[in-house]
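User: Sequence recovery, please. Input:
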């Protein structure tokens, strides 16, 4: 049987007209065929095995097992269930949030500059160092500022001594005014005594005039009696002598009266020697001299004085008259402190005190300290450098950061202030940060560029604009996964959720600032005059 099949195969090959080499290949190929297979050679030389040849036994078909399909179905069910369990929330999350990959971490930069000019002696920090409010950063040479402080301190002590001297001078002026006041009173009392003397002298004059008149009558009577021989010549001589004495006494009385009037500053008056002006007590030269000295002394004290004002004169009488055993300056503290000389001296003390405070500040400013916490960057100072006020020596990048998300203008319709935001940072793929929408920029990024576009001329191609949206963290910037400025962020704004917090639901801030002001915690920021009382710098 085998020989017959082989002969048949050989005959088929010969009919095909194969070459001897092809016949060798044919023999090697046909030797691998099943014995019961039929080889059919088509005109193109293709060898085909006829499986339906009667000589070929029919092959057995493999049986299909149902377990295999059950396993496949279970695997497909598990995949569908997992997709439904994890895929449905993801799809829902994508549908209920709006995101952008054009978002970055941003933060402020605090440039550190000196307030005084000087030579840097020490630098305590370097690049990337963590600093806290109040931490010493660098030192400036203290020696010239210590000298200036000593000079200001000496000037302040001198100004204080000048205040004491000014007070003593005012007290001396008041004492001089009181002395003049008493001289005026003494002059007035002397004047009143002279007026009384004048009146007494006038009375004496009248008495002597009466005595002279009586002596004249007696002299004429005795003279008549002598002519008749009734009186002696000696009696007449005696009467003549009495008349001369009374006449001389009258002349003496007139002389005394005119002398007293001269002492009163009055001209001679033989008609009415008692003619005295009513204001003689205030117009007499001695009184006027005392009044002028009072006015001069009080003017230096800063008190106006008008002796013509009767009420003011009485007030100054009360002012200048000491009570009991009071000294010249006792009880006059208010007047002394209001004196121009004292006020000028006190102003000099205030000026010297301010200069001393400034010198103390300059001395304190030789130590440059951090006002905020953060990390050092951009150090540009070394020991030996001469620095000036306003010169940037180094920068501090604060730990406070926010996210600047540049959303397309077609995405901001549903976004409002206060909406919750999930933040995915490329640097930390296994950490999700949380924040909230804090505000919208008043203009797109292109409108705030250095050279904004001019679309009024030329061809116009519409480009979708992006609006910066500020997203603030609702949790502190963690130390284990810190957000550095410039990191890429993908924010997802949950616009389906209810916004909360200040300005919730708005696009623009309706009033003021929605977050507390940025306050430094260093030497300047912690001063009571620069921030609320009770706030202290955070020290590690």
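Assistant: Recovered sequence (540 residues):
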């Amino acid at each position: 049987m085998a020989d017959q099949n082989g002969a048949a195969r050989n005959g088929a090959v010969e009919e095909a007209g194969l070459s001897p080499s092809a016949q060798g290949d044919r023999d090697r190929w046909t030797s691998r065929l099943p014995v019961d297979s039929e080889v059919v050679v088509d005109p193109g030389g293709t060898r085909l095995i006829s499986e339906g040849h009667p000589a070929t036994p029919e092959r057995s078909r493999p049986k299909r097992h149902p377990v295999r399909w059950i396993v496949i179905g279970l695997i497909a069910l598990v995949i569908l269930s997992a997709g439904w369990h994890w895929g449905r929330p993801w799809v829902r999350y994508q549908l209920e949030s709006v995101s952008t990959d054009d978002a970055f971490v941003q933060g402020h930069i605090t440039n550190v500059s000196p307030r005084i000019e000087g030579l840097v002696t020490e630098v305590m920090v370097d690049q990337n160092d963590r600093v806290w409010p109040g931490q010493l950063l660098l030192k400036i040479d203290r020696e010239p500022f210590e000298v200036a402080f000593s000079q200001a301190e000496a000037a302040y002590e001198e100004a204080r001594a000048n205040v004491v001297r000014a007070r003593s001078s005012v007290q001396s002026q008041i004492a001089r005014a009181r002395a003049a006041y008493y001289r005026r009173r003494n002059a007035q009392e002397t004047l009143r005594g002279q007026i009384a003397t004048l009146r007494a002298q006038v009375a004496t004059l009248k008495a002597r005039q009466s005595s002279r008149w009586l002596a004249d009558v007696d002299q004429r009577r005795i003279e008549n009696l002598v002519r008749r021989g009734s009186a002696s010549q000696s009696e007449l001589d005696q009467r003549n002598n009495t008349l001369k004495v009374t006449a001389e006494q009258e002349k003496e009385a007139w002389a005394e009266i005119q002398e007293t009037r001269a002492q009163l500053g009055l001209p001679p008056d033989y008609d009415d020697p008692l003619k005295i002006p009513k204001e003689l007590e205030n117009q007499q030269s001695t009184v006027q001299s005392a009044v002028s000295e009072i006015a001069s002394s009080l003017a230096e004290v800063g008190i106006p004085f008008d002796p013509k004002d009767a009420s003011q004169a009485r007030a100054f009488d009360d002012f200048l008259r000491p009570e009991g055993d009071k000294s010249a300056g006792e009880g006059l503290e208010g007047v002394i402190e209001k004196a121009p000389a004292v006020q000028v001296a006190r102003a000099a003390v205030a000026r010297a005190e301010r200069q001393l405070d400034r010198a103390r500040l300059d001395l304190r400013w030789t130590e440059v300290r951090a006002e905020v916490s953060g990390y050092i960057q951009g150090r540009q100072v070394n020991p030996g450098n001469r620095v000036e006020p306003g010169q940037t020596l180094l920068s501090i990048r604060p730990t406070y950061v926010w996210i600047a998300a540049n959303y397309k203008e077609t995405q901001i319709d549903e976004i409002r202030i206060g909406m919750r935001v999930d933040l995915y940072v490329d640097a930390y793929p296994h950490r999700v940060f949380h924040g909230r929408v804090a505000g919208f920029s008043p203009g797109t990024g292109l409108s705030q560029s250095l050279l904004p576009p001019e679309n009024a001329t030329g061809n116009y191609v519409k480009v979708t604009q992006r609006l910066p949206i500020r997203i603030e963290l609702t949790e502190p910037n963690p130390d284990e996964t810190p957000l550095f400025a410039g990191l890429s962020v993908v924010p997802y704004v949950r616009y389906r959720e209810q916004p909360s917090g200040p300005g919730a639901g708005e696009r623009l801030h309706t009033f003021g600032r929605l977050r507390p002001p940025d306050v430094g915690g260093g030497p300047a920021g912690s001063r009571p005059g620069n921030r609320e009382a009770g706030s202290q710098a955070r020290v590690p």
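The radius of gyration is 63 Å.
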